[in-house]
Structures are given as C-alpha cells and as structure tokens.
Amino acid sequence: MCGIVGYIGENQAAPFLLEGLARLEYRGYDSAGVAVYTDDGIEIAKSKGRLQVLSDQIHGGNDINGFMGIGHTRWATHGEPSDINAHPHASVSGKFAVVHNGIIENYIELKTKLEKHGYTFTSDTDTEVIAHMLEYYYKGDVLDAIIRIINRLEGSYALGILCADCPDRFFAVRKSSPLIVGLGRGENFIASDVAAILKHTRDIYYLEDNEIVELTSDGVKVYNKDKEEVPKEISKITWDIDAAEKGGYEHFMMKEIEEQPTALRNTISPRIKDGRIILDSVSLTKDDIKNIRKIYIVACGSAYHVGVVGKYVIERMCRIPVEVQVASEFRYCDPIVGSKDLVIAISQSGETADTLAALKEAKDHGARILSIVNVEGSAIAKASDDVIYTWAGPEIAVATTKAYSTQLAVIYLMAGYMSEKLGMLTSGEYKRFIDDLERLPDLVAEVLKNKENVQHLASMFYNCHSIFFIGRNLDYAVALEGSLKLKEISYIHSEAYAAGELKHGTISLIEDGTLVIALATGSGLFDKTVSNVKEVKARGAVVIGVSTTENPMTGIADHTITLPETTDVMLPSLTVIPLQLFGYYVASNKGCDIDKPKNLAKSVTVE
Ligand code: G6P
User: Fold this and answer.
1) Cα–Cα distance for residue pair 372/379, rounded to 1 Å
2) What is the pLDDT of residues 555-590, one digit of tens each?
3) Atom of ligand 1 nearest to the CA of 400
4) pLDDT tens figures, 293-318
5) Domains of the chain (ranges, CATH numbers)
6) Which of 49, 273, 445, 470 is most buried per CB count within 10 Å?
7) What's the 402 CA to ligand 1 centre distance in angstroms?
8) Which ligand 1 atom lies nearest to the CA of residue 355?
9) Atom 2, ligand 1: which residue's CA is nearest?
10) pTM to 2 decimals?
C-alpha cells in the first residue's frame, strides 16, 4: 500500500518520478506527490486524486527542475485523501521532505512529544511526525538523525528522505515495508517495487530491516543502525520489461488473464523432470511429510481462495488434514499449531501484513513454514523455511488473475509431490497427474479462446444488482474467487455459496430474474449441484451453468459455459477463467476503472 520512488542522477527527476509512480499506482491511488531538490531548495507538489491530476498540475514534471527527488502514490490510512494529507510531508522549517509507506503505530505519543517542543502539525497523517522528528534530531548529520528516529519509530516504514542541506545525496530506510535500491550508471534509484525502475536498471540491492541507504549519482552506501557500512550483493532482475507494460491491451487485467498459459508454463515446466515433480527449493524429506500432523494454509483475499482449493486437493491426494484460515483471523485465534504442523503461507506480493504476522505467529509456535510467493526476496519469502515461487511475472491489475492461477499450479505441484512421497498414487495415476499438469497451460489457452461467449453473457447481465455463485467442494472454492472477482471490479453485490447450503437461508434472496452462476464441473457431484440449480430455477433464478464436456448443462441451465476435461483436482484452473472474464466484461460494460477499483490496493501492508 502506497508506492514510493526516488531518483538521483543526470536527468530531470520530476518526469522520472511521475513515470515510476505510474508503475506503482496499483499500490494506492488516492493522491500523489513529489519533492525535488531545485536551485531554490526543496520544492513539493502534491494533490488529491489520481497521479494524472498531479502530472497535469506540474505539466508532466516540466515545471520542476532538479536532478534529485522522491515521489509517492498513496492509499490512505491516517487521514482522508486530500492535498494536505498527500505525501511528501515537510518538516516545520522545510529542511526535510519525507515519503512513507507503512504505519507508525506510536505516532500519537511521538506527536504529543513534538507538540510539547513547539512543533505544529498540518496533516492528519502518521508520516508527518517523521519529518518533524528528523528536524528535531538533526545536528548536521542526516545519518545520525535517521538512526535516532528509527530507534523511536514503532510499526512499519519504507522512507525516502530529502534534506535541504544535502544537494548531492538523499536517503532511504525500511522496516517491514518493501523498498529496493536500483543501481544505474551515473544515476541511482529507490522504489517500492522493481516495476518502477526496470526500464532503467536490472541491478538492485534488497534491503534488510533498518538498513539505511545514502544515494549519490555515483554510488550507493548502505549502513546499519551502528552507522557501519554494510557490504551488499547485487541481485539481477530477470523480468522482462514488457511484463510491466500494457502492450496494447486496454487494461492490465485482460493482459494478465491472457498471460495465464505462459505464467502456468513458467511455473510448472521447470519443476517436472523426467516425468517426476522436483521441488528443489523444498527441503521437506519423505519422513518430514509422513510426520506432518496437520497442514494450515494462511492467506488473504484471492490467495485465501487458493488455500480453499488447496484444502480439497491436499486432503484428497495426501489424506493429511488441512485447515485453511484467513490470515487476519489466524493471527489472533491462539491457533493450536506446533512443531508437527506445516504452515503454508500464500501471497502474491509476499508483503501482506496479516499473512506475514500469521506466519510469524505459527513460527513462534514451532511450526515449519512453506510459502508460495511471487515476489523474490519479499518479506514472506525471507521469513519462511521453504519457498516455492510462482513465476507469474509482475502483476499490476489490482484484481489478481495470473498470480491466483500460478498459486493453484503450485498447490497441484505440492500435492503431487507429497502424495508421491507418501506412496498414495499408483505409477499410472501419478503419470496421468503429471501429464495433466503439463497439459494445463494448453487447456487454459483453449478455455480463453471461448471468451466471446462470456463477453456476450456479461453484456446480458451487467445491470444485475446481485449475483450468486454456487458450487460444491472444489467448485465452491472457485465460486468464492469468481464472486470476489466480480464484486471487486464491477461493484455488483455478490455472494458465493456452497450449493447445498443455499437452502438454509440465503435462498430467500432468490427472486424472479436473479442471476445464479452454478459451477458443476466435478463429475462426482454433478447431479447434486443440478438439484440445487433446479431449486433456484423453481424460484425464478436465471442460471448460467459452468460444467465440462462430459456433463454439459444444456437443457438444465439457461446459459452454459462448457470446459474441457482434465483430472478433477485441476478443474479449478479451468473453471476460474470464465469467471475472471465475466467479472472483467461486466466491469467493462459498466465503465468501471478495472485496473484500479475504488477503495482497494493490490498490496496490503496494514492490518
Ligand atoms: C489484496 C489484493 C488481492 C490479494 C490480497 C492478498 O486484497 O487486492 O487481490 O489476493 O491482497 O495479497 P497477496 O499479495 O498476499 O497475495
């Protein structure tokens, strides 16, 4: 949440900052601002609204001249979105300008103390205390002042800091919020995420908590809290720059939907060698797997929905009990978890605050942690015993699609891997499983070819006020994701229900014309879900039925979407595709801002 970027070099800073912020807007987009070191000192421009408002205000950055600056795009936590609450925030005398991503938990205490020393506050943010504290502690050495403040700040922060006394350098520091340093030639950068600087460099430093960075145009020095210089290793980013561009698509979301076959191939292929699943990054032995008492899956949002699929898949294939919980609940429920348990944390960004906290809670209880993460070097990856990366590439649209799909693929890889180690599959069953896993990217591509059908259905139903998704077992797990996809980008109320549960209350909401999307892909439960379809139709519902070629819904549902066949446990990967498309096209028909839905941010680093 919130994106920050910083630049020093031979080029004008302001246009660079705007370009970098545009790539970070997915992190928050209620206001934006820049601070640039100019001949007249630090100049700040900021405004409420999308980045474009700021860009228009400063004419694409051309109004502010200077070769060093910091920028910010905000998702409000403390204080409503407004010009005043937008970052950067300046200290009283204007000596310091600060951009911040994170939350300062003890800001009220710090604010009270500063007020007693005569400091006045203009914004409602927690960030403003940082600017004033820097000024309070500054005695001529910015590093010293930063060390003083980080000893007092509680919470999370990634900070970019300009000081009026330092025309040739700026500073940054992070704790529990992401921040990377980009190394260029004659120019250097900071950013919340590589997407912001990928066009300029592929060489980066990952920072540990409380490492302080001093950037000049010629070099970068990293210090610890004792002001000792820390040697850093350069990491090379291999992501393709095209991956972070729209590439002719109207929205990142559709580009990312279409990228799913490739993302799946990248995630699955390197892990299958000579007909076997090889998970090099996983150190769990056969005995470790045999001794697992219980698996917990913790995650948020769509990653949680992957966990719900994971429960069905792992229990079915490995016969190990699996409990899946949203991370924000798990962390506070005093979980019965210990050294015999495996905790799987799923996260695209690898920085979701609740997931990270849940993982730490489990770790404190002695559990082993395996994470499924998309962003290399992220906090969740670092805090885990084992990591399996989803090679989805950068995902920009707030509504996840390809990250969700690759997370599912990792669940299949893990379930197949563990079930082989446990001797649960015959060699024939294992071979079929591997064949279907390798075929999955092509099957997803096949489903994507039928998007006109979904587009047509979306054009018929985009005016609905409420839409229900129903399904049983794995279909129910996908229904949760389909419903979330729809509501988050189209703002249509939607609920997902276990098909057999609807009659215990919620069926009272079904009336003439209510749209129900019924998922009935699992062959074993087809007839059961068909009975539920009949129940809702008898009460006036219009039904879109999603099922496979083996059991088409023709004559049962009013409209049908038919998917190719594959191993039962992998059907969620196919079922989710028309639901992603349905959400997309409904939102498109309604004229919604698909990539940046209201009130949301992609990466949620607050509780
Ligand atoms: C936000 C996003 C969701 C995402 C969730 C978890 O709410 O909008 O799309 O599923 O966070 O994010 P993570 O990065 O942990 O997967």
Assistant:
1) 12
2) 999 999 999 999 999 999 999 999 999 999 999 999
3) 9
4) 999 999 999 999 999 999 999 999 99
5) 3-238 (3.60.20.10), 247-447 (3.40.50.10490), 450-591 (3.40.50.10490)
6) 470
7) 12
8) 15
9) 602
10) 0.83
